[in-house]
Amino acid sequence: MLVATPGDHLIIRGHRVGEPERDAEIVEVRGPDGTPPFLVRWSGDGHESLVFPGSDALVRHEHRDDQDQDDQDQ
After folding, report:
1. Residues 39-61: tens digit of each pLDDT
2. Which long-range contacts (CB under 8 A, 24 or more apart) does 14-17 make?
3. Which end of the chain is more exposed for a tag (fewer CB within 10 A), N or C?
4. pTM, full prediction
5. Can you tell me the distance from the alpha carbon of 35 to that of 38, in angstroms, rounded to the nearest whole number?
6. Dihedral angle of Cα 31, 32, 35, 37, to the nearest 10 degrees
């Protein structure tokens, strides 16, 4: 099961040989505990859509400096 937070990126692998991957920023997570569906903003044209990712998808978790600072403060 995919789990994400806003700011992560959703990567959709190409379905055919030579077809490029698609990339979108996850704007909002609408499922429980970070699970789909995700509201995403596509990198190619900036449009937003609600996505229920399939087996061809993965989440790239973005590194956040504010989380590192929170960890250091503890």
Report:
1. 999 998 999 999 999 999 999 99
2. 15/56
3. C
4. 0.79
5. 8
6. 0
